[in-house]
Amino acid sequence: KVRAVLRQGPGSARIEAWSSMTQTLAAFQAGYPDFLRQRPSAEVHERIVRDLPRTYFAGGPLDAAGQQRLQNLLQAYAASDDAIGYCQGMNFLASFLLEE
User: Fold this and answer.
1) Cβ(81)–Cβ(43) under 8 Å?
2) Confidence band (pLDDT; 50, 70, 90) for 99?
């Protein structure tokens, strides 16, 4: 399959990847209220809280409201995906989603 994708060029793989990510995002958005009510393990929660003050937007550090929004998003994602949960660096990726 890899050879077939390489012969077709990156465009064909890009379409498949975007389709998969879009379906995943739609499922996450639909379940977001339920994921917010769930809580990740104490260890995951602690790692998220530890990384919040280290997260910067283009304009500087997050204020308290921004940290709360980021914490909600990260905890909801951790609750939605047990296999990944939370790992260092997700805070920076998620902060881009929250930029206004």
Assistant:
1) no
2) confident
28: exposed, middle or buried (C-beta count within 10 Å: 0-12, 13-18, 19+)? middle
**Helix 64-80 × helix 10-37 angle, to 10°:** 110
Interval 35-57: pLDDT, tens: 888 888 899 999 999 999 888 77
Say which residues have a Cβ less than 8 Å from residue 74's Cβ, sequence separation at least 6: 48, 86, 90, 91, 94
Picking from 56, 34, 47, 29, the residue whose alpha carbon sits closest to that of residue 84 is: 47
